[in-house]
Every structure is written in structure tokens, then in C-alpha cells.
Design brief:
The protein contains 2 helices and 38 strands. The protein has 4 domains: 30-106, Immunoglobulin-like (Sandwich); 112-197, Immunoglobulin-like; 199-287, Immunoglobulins (Immunoglobulin-like), CATH 2.60.40; 290-469, Jelly Rolls, CATH 2.60.120.260. It has helices spanning 2-21, 333-336, and strands at residues 34-35, 40-43, 47-49, 52-53, 59-63, 69-71, 76-79, 83-91, 99-106, 112-119, 121-128, 135-140, 146-150, 156-163, 168-177, 187-194, 204-210, 214-218, 225-231, 237-241, 246-249, 259-267, 272-280, 286-288, 291-292, 302-305, 318-319, 346-348, 369-373, 378-385, 389-399, 403-409, 412-413, 417-419, 430-432, 438-441, 444-455, 460-469. The protein is rod-shaped. The protein has 472 residues and is mainly beta.
């Protein structure tokens, strides 16, 4: 019996041991402490109330680094300085296991900084997503000079600048200041300052004004963009962006005095610098306007050169049924004016002896003329009549055969007139008078055209048209 009781006690003891080894309720004290925040991110000077539970328990609070953060026994955390530490909370029994709350304390700063160039200045856009920043400071690293821009605790994108810079590239440290004057970790930016002398407007390589259009060839400059403002043919002011290096304005109003203005814009990031220029009078590299008035006489007439037909190309300013480019003196006179639509027009300067008088010398004693015209070819010229009335007109041409010519005034075709053969050397020019020989023109813009209506298959040379005031 005694032996049985001893064995029973051992079995009971073993069961107790096994029961103790089996998995049971969680007795980790830390897991019985609950805090309303697992981490804290604070700015210097901030205070935050931590709350632990269960609420019927007494907790003890402590900071591991009082230079970074302190905590009261009520759980109020005060951010004292930049850095990282832990706030420890424990229960009131001697085996209390603390719960640790990581704390990060920093100086408020912008989410990002964007640097921009300027005119004798630079600027920085600060993307601020808090209301804790008092000012932004830019410091020039080579001189140590600083300039401060007030933020006044606003959020959003705030622009800070550094004024009074010469032309050049400079390195800046950018920091945010909090209400205590503490500085955030600096961001380093390298920024460009421009001097006005280095912001020259875009150059114009060619500017040619015709009676019906304006051509401008711009110099290439990727650092700026241009807007052109001009008076259109409907009397309204129009502004257009310059997207190409060659600009054609077919609604440009050139009469009575052509002009346009253009603004070169320099996108310097922080702002756009504008430089405006006006082009008028002698500023045009080529002026091909024909203005008729009562000052003209037979001895001092207006002369419309055949080579200066309107702009617009085949079917608009002229029609050419055949092109002859075999002449060694063939030259791209129109391309020199900026008109890239003249591929079918041969303009030469062959002289009366049949010799080349100098390719390209369009201001010489024997000006260029339109060569190798055949039946059906025509040319159009837009003119401006200052004084309404009658104008005598004659066509100066030469022909390798006999032709019939025709005037086309404001789109209306007139009566045919003879252009006799001047032998094969068609550059032997003579004046040919149409019937009637006078045009009645009202004040304003008109178009005058000349057409080879019918005749020989041999080529003809067209030099121009003479007009003068003839009221009687």
C-alpha cells in the first residue's frame, strides 16, 4: 500500500511537469502593454501625447536619449533635438518588460527642391508639404553669402531667389529654417544666372516681303522660342508661334508700309525673359513691293520685274508648263529671297551677246529675267495703288517665235496682244503694248498678271512690266 502511494505521487508529479511544458496562455508581459503609436516622427519642438493600456495600470515612461526627446510620466513626449531614440514604457511590477517606441526627430524641410535659372538671379521652387517652415535660405558656396526668403509657415510650392548675380553658373546650398532658426539638411544645386547682354534675340537670316506674303528664315537657336505679331489682310492683328526655321505668312498685309514685330522668349525656368524687336523699312533683307502712284511718268515709270512674281509657287503665283535647267548660268534667284517654291522657274542673267553676265549678280547692268516661257505660262504680281486712276502699261519681253500675250487683272483675263519674234535670241527685249493700253485701278490692293496665251513653241523671255500714271 505504501509503495502504491509513492508511485502515485511520482505519476502526479510527472503530470504536473508535463502540464507545465505544454503550450498555454501567453505570459509575455510586453504583449500585455498596448500603446496608441508604434513609432513617432517629430520635428524639433513638437510635443505628442502617448497613451498606454490597460488604463487601470500604472505605467512608467523613460527616454533613452534626453538630448533627442524627453517624456513625462503622463506619456507626453517632447522633441528636444535632431536624432533617433526610444521611449520606453513599463508596468508597475518588478518583472515589467518595457515596450519600445522608436522616435525620430528632424528639422522640417521641403519634399523636393527645383532649381531655375534667371536674369541676374536664380530661383528655387520648394515643394513644402507641412506648415512648419519659417524661411528658405540660399547660400552661395563660393562666397558664403546667403539670402533668405520668408515662407511664413505656408505649404505648397514656394519660390525662393538669390538676387544680384553676374552671368555664370554657381553652386548653392538650400536649407529650410524652422521657427527656432534650426536648419534642415542642405540640398546642393548648381544653377545658371544670365546677364541681359547674353540674351540676344533670335537672328533673322532672310526676310523678304512680297505683295501677297512674307518670308522669314530664322537662325537656329534651341535656347529660345519666338512669337510673331503682324497685321493680316483682314485688318486684324495676329500672333503666331514660330515652329519652323522658315516661316511663310500668306495673310500678311504689307501695304502701305510693311512691318512686324517678334518677341524672343527665353524660358529661364523661374520666369520667361522677353526681348521684342520690330522689323520694318530697311530692316527687310529684300523688299519686293510694288506701289503705284501719280508720281510716275513715262520717263520715270514703275517697273515690275518678272522675277519678282508673288509667293506661293506653282498654280498660285505662276504656272510653268516646262522647266529648262540646262543653262550653265541657271541660278536660284528666288531661293536667295527665301522662296523655296520656285523649282519650275528658270531665272538667268544672260546678256545681249548671249554670254553670261555674272551668275548671281542680280544688281548688275543686265538684271535677271524669266527664261524659256511657253504657251500657257503665266506670272502674277500683287501691287498697291496709292492713287486711283489710269495707268499706262507695257510688257517687256523677247520671243524666239510669235506669241499672243494676255493681261490678267484681279483674276479677269483681258484681250490678247501680239509679242512678235525678236529672233532666237529672246533676250533682245522690246516693249509690247496691250489693247487697251491703260488700266483703270482703284485705290488699294490689286493683282496684275501676264500670260503667254498662244503662239510659237519656241521659248520666250519675260523681263517685266512698265506702268505709269496716265490720267488723260
Amino acid at each position: 500500500m505504501k509503495s502504491f502511494l509513492i508511485q502515485a505521487r511520482w505519476i502526479f508529479a510527472c503530470l504536473l511537469i508535463l502540464a507545465g511544458c505544454a503550450k498555454g496562455p501567453d505570459r509575455n508581459i510586453e504583449k500585455r502593454i498596448f500603446v496608441d503609436r508604434q513609432t513617432l516622427d517629430l520635428y524639433v519642438g513638437d510635443e505628442f501625447q502617448l497613451t498606454a493600456s490597460p488604463t487601470n495600470t500604472t505605467f512608467f515612461w523613460e527616454s533613452l536619449d534626453h538630448t533627442v526627446a524627453t517624456v513625462s510620466q503622463a506619456g507626453v513626449v517632447h522633441a528636444a533635438g535632431v536624432g533617433d531614440t526610444y521611449i520606453m514604457v513599463s508596468m508597475d511590477d518588478e518583472n515589467a518588460v518595457v515596450r519600445q517606441i522608436p522616435v525620430d526627430v528632424s528639422i522640417p524641410s521641403a519634399f523636393k527642391f527645383t532649381g531655375k535659372s534667371g536674369l541676374n538671379r536664380v530661383a528655387v521652387d520648394a515643394d513644402i508639404r507641412n506648415n512648419r517652415i519659417q524661411a528658405i535660405k540660399l547660400t552661395r558656396t563660393d562666397t558664403g553669402e546667403s539670402q533668405i526668403t520668408d515662407v511664413d509657415f505656408q505649404d505648397g510650392v514656394i519660390s525662393a531667389s538669390f538676387e544680384g548675380l553676374p552671368d555664370g553658373t554657381f553652386t548653392f546650398d538650400v536649407v529650410c529654417l524652422d521657427k527656432y532658426g534650426n536648419e534642415s539638411v542642405p540640398a546642393t544645386l548648381r544653377l545658371r544666372s544670365y546677364d541681359e547682354a547674353n540674351l540676344t534675340p533670335r537672328d533673322i537670316e532672310i526676310s523678304t516681303v512680297f505683295g501677297n506674303a512674307l518670308i522669314v528664315h530664322w537662325a537656329y537657336n534651341p535656347e529660345n522660342y519666338v512669337k510673331v505679331t503682324y497685321l493680316s489682310t483682314n485688318g486684324k492683328e495676329v500672333t503666331v508661334d514660330v515652329d519652323e526655321l522658315v516661316m511663310y505668312l500668306y495673310d500678311f498685309q504689307p501695304f502701305p508700309a510693311p512691318s512686324f514685330r517678334y518677341v524672343t522668349y527665353y524660358d529661364l525656368g523661374e520666369f520667361v525673359y522677353e526681348n521684342e524687336r520690330v522689323v520694318s523699312g530697311d530692316d527687310f533683307t529684300h523688299n519686293k513691293l510694288y506701289i503705284l502712284n501719280s508720281s510716275s511718268t513715262l520717263s520715270n515709270p514703275h517697273y515690275i520685274w518678272a522675277r519678282d512674281f508673288d509667293m506661293g509657287g506653282e498654280g498660285v503665283a505662276f504656272h510653268k508648263g516646262q522647266r529648262n535647267t540646262t543653262l550653265p548660268e541657271y541660278q536660284d534667284y528666288r531661293k536667295g529671297l527665301g522662296d523655296l517654291n520656285d523649282n519650275w522657274v528658270v531665272i538667268t542673267d544672260r546678256d545681249g551677246s548671249g554670254a553670261n553676265s555674272g551668275v548671281g549678280n542680280i544688281l548688275g547692268t543686265y538684271p535677271p529675267y524669266v527664261f524659256y516661257n511657253i504657251v500657257g505660262d503665266w506670272y502674277r504680281y500683287t501691287v498697291y495703288v496709292e492713287d486711283a486712276g489710269f495707268y499706262d502699261i507695257a510688257v517687256e519681253a523677247g520671243a524666239g517665235g510669235t506669241y499672243q500675250g494676255r493681261l490678267i487683272v484681279d483674276g479677269v483675263e483681258g484681250v490678247d496682244f501680239a509679242i512678235p519674234q525678236t529672233n532666237w535670241s529672246c533676250w533682245n527685249f522690246t516693249f509690247h503694248v496691250p489693247t487697251p493700253s491703260k488700266l483703270e485701278l482703284s485705290q488699294g490692293v490689286h493683282t496684275i498678271g501676264f500670260k503667254y496665251q498662244s503662239g510659237s513653241s519656241n521659248g520666250s523671255c519675260f523681263k517685266g512690266m512698265r506702268l505709269y500714271w496716265s490720267p488723260n
